[in-house]
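Format notes (please read before filing issues)

Several people have asked whether sequences and structure tokens are stored in separate files. They are not. Every record keeps both together, in the order shown below: the sequence lines, then the token lines. Line labels are part of the format and must not be stripped during preprocessing.
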Amino acid sequence: MDAVTGSRALSFSTAAARYATHRPSYPPTLFEALKDLAGRDPAGARVADVGAGTGIATALLDAYGARVVAVEPGEGMAAEFRRRNPRIPLVRGDGNRLPLATGSLDLLTYAQSWHWTDPDRAVPEALRVLRPGGALAVWSNDPDLRVGWIADQHTRIEKRFGPGFYINQRPRSQGGLEFATQLLPWSRRISVDDHLAKLSTHSLFLIGEPGTDAFLVDEHRRLTALFPDGWIEEHYVVDLKVALRP
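Then the structure lines:
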């Protein structure tokens, strides 16, 4: 991980409450798809959710019936996690060196967080903590660029700030892990203001890149002209990848 990516990875703690409020959740079909790819139900499974952030995915796993522990490196994110999820155990750490016992897990999950790891370190760690037959599941909420206004906004971001706004590195097959994939389209209806607040929780905006405030002002003008009632439909595709430990 280079210095720029490292600073982006650590930026979320500066806006943990805003992140928890405005980042999207995941579709109700997610855990059924995970069950199909992993060959076992997450309910009742021993799970660690790595890069848990404020607990968006962790809380869903807990509600689904998983015996889940969160792993989170950021101080501010961990504090917000504990405030919102006081019953769920949390340990400080990251995917490159997991603070978990060898062979202790049925399922290891990375929701919107795999791209902050070094795969050459994270894959051996996943293999270490998973029991034989356990599953590594990696997923991300990606903007659905088949939708016109979303594709146009993404183009404006990359034109203004360069490529790589959505750093969603896909896991590659290595160390005996072979990934199966399922794509899950879904959407949510939110206000223009909430959409822009969500946009502002992405690391590019949190590290204070010059021009980000002006960009959000311009986007507000564009979107309110395009959606005069002040409401939009955000479209996502969850990219779910699952590999079984040999």
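For reference, the curators noted about this record: The longest strand covers residues 130-143. The mean pLDDT is 92.
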